[in-house]
Structures are given as structure tokens and as C-alpha cells.
Amino acid sequence: MVIGSGFLDQFISAETANEIVGEALNSLPLEGKRVLILIPDGTRSMPMPLMFSLFEEHLSGRVAALDYLVALGTHQPMTDAQLTHLVGRSVTDGKVGSSTIFNHRWEDPETFIQVGIIPEDEIHELSQGHMRQDVAVRLNKLIMDYDHLLICGPVFPHEVVGFSGGNKYFFPGIAGAEIINFTHWLGATLTSFDIIGSGYTPVRAVIDRAASMIPKPVHCFSLVVTYEGLAGLYFGSAQEAWKAAANLSAQKHIIYVDQPYQKVLSIMPELYDDLWTAAKGMYKLEPVVAEGGEVIIYAPHIDEVSYTYGDIIDEVGYHCRDFFVKQWERYKHYPHGVLAHSTHLRGLGTYDAATGVETPRIKVTLASGIPADRCQRIGLGYLDPHSINLDDWVDKEDQGILVVPRAGEMLYRIKKQ
């Protein structure tokens, strides 16, 4: 059963959100239990201060412990100042009152516990024949210290899994490298162009199968958020709450245009602080860029490719999928999640192994604080961000130019004729 509601033409008030959260939490036997809530980091639009207050209101005094784990995946740990902004309460040494907010320590091998293995035959079936290998399922062992796990996060079109949210807060949110690399490369082989916003995907099937191995009860709050407000709030199992939110997200977060554009200026908000996260400005716009066209990622505030994997990307560069597939022996030792990111940002293209010629479908240019020589080294175009006068770009759709303010969460597609 799913508790909650969502709307295409209105937003959920704080009072209604309180009613939904209260009904949802009262449906669970949480008295005296230790509860851990998985939450997003600062790269997702999310009314986390509201949800944090509601959890405190409805669970404080009822549960033995109420703590939080930031599902970082492989993003950078959040500081106390960043956590304070995230939850709307003063955070000191990771503490808010009696609650602790933990950063997922993905870089520490001691963080993890293995909860199972998905055997190769099952992977072959789940991946619709694209992969055949055993996949170890490792998660942050902190979950073993709690009686009940809750997920709380938004759902958006997503380049790896179709739509974000749900069990994705476990995988990659608090998962080990094996399943992170596997699922991201599976998504890359299918291509972001085809998988983003496409519903229930083979990657989602693998993630849900892995989540079935978690030896703790799990429930989920899935939110549908726009810049204007909270459009949907659903509670239930991770699969069912996600499904309800994904159905609404498909209607709220996809913008359909009449024709492709030759140039797209993708303006990235400060929500994203490196290219690894700001690459969403490419993923979400690629479907409406004409053959031979260009996406310009405009982010003057960004001066780093990736705080986690920058050195590896400097070695590998950005390439289309077939560049790696047709030279697999050369690249297979690199983290497959990094290779996946590379193909997602570079987009569709071809690679001729006989001639060594790569032909991307479109051009990707950075107008950021990343210098020209580094852009050239990693295979991207460069444009001085100070040379861009935004007034010169707007209202030129009839000239084949699209400007997307606050890019990264809305998916653009061409209307079917």
C-alpha cells in the first residue's frame, strides 16, 4: 500500500506533508526501535529541512535512536556547514540534538559488509542478456546497527537507472565499488540517451534484486520536487513508493520541444560543484541536440573535473561508449563507473577500431573555470565563460539556440511526430 499523493497542477503544503508523514510512520511498528534514515547529499533539490523536522516531530520520544546516513555514492563527504544547510538545523560534529548524521565512507574498506552475491546467470537474466558475471552486494555496515531503515529522497529522470530514488539510495548510495561499477557500466552500455527517463530498466532490476538481500526492514519516502515546490510525496515499500513517484516525475520533469537545436546553453546552478555532478547538464539535454550540434555547459563556478576521480579522467578522457567497448583490454582495469561517466558526458558516437577514429554525434563544450588545456586533454571543447553574455543567447529558439536556466534536473525530449 502506498500512502501519499501527487499533483500535476498544485503543490503539497507543509500541513499536508505533515499528515502524510504522520500516517506513514504511524503505520510502522517503530516503538523502541533504532531507526536509520538514508538521505541525499546537496546535489539534489529536496525540502530536507521540512522532512527532517517532520521526522523529529513524529519519531522523537517514540524510537530508541533516530540517525541519518547521507547516501553519497562516491561524492565528497559533507561538512558540518553543508549538513546545516541541508537539514536546516545547526550541525556540530555531525550531531543535531540526539541525532547523528553520518557521511557514507565509501573510500574506507572497513565501512562495508557483504550481504550477498547476485550470481552470473541471474545477472544475465536481469540485464536482459547484456552482462554475465557474479556481482558482490556490499553495503555500509552501519545499517546492521539499526532495526529499521527508511529512505527519504527525490525522484528525477536519471542517466544510469532511468529514474532516480527508491533503492538507488542503497545502490550506489551506500554501496561497495563492485555493484556501483557494475550498474553504471551496464547503464553505459545501454546508453544514457536511451535509458534516461525510460521507466523500469535493467539497471533498476539489478538494484532491486540487490536490495532484496538487505537483512533489515526497509520503507521509503519518495518525493517529486520542482523548483516551485513539492509536487508529490509517497510512502511505502522502496519499489512501490518509487514507482508512484516515477510516474509523476515522468509528467513533471520531462519537457517536450518541437524540434532539435543546434546549440544548447546549459546553465548549471551551484548545486553542482564539479563536472562529475554538473554533467547532468549534458545528460538531460542530449536528446534535443541536433546531429553535429553542441551542448555548452555554462558553470563559471566549477574549476574541477571530479574531486574524487579527476586524475583518472585526466588519463582516460571523455569518449563515446564504443571507444571503450572496442578497446576493452586497454581500458577494463579502470573503474567502470568512471568509464560510464565518461560515455554519459560525451554522448552517442562511433569508433572505428581499424582507423582509430572516434566520431561523436555532438560537441560538448565547457564554459567553466576548468582551463582550456585541460578541456583539450580530456576531449572536450572550451569556451571562456566571461565571453558569454546571457542576454545575447535568450529568445533565439527560432535560430536553433536553446538556453536552459538551472539545468540538471529537467529532462528535454523532442515531441513524437
Automatic annotation (TrEMBL):
One example GO MF annotation: lactate racemase activity
InterPro entries: LarA-like, LarA-like_C, LarA-like_N
Signal peptide: none
Pfam families tied to this protein: Lar_N
Stretches assigned to the LarA-like N-terminal domain: 12-186
Name of the protein in its database record: LarA-like N-terminal domain-containing protein
Originating organism: Candidatus Brevifilum fermentans
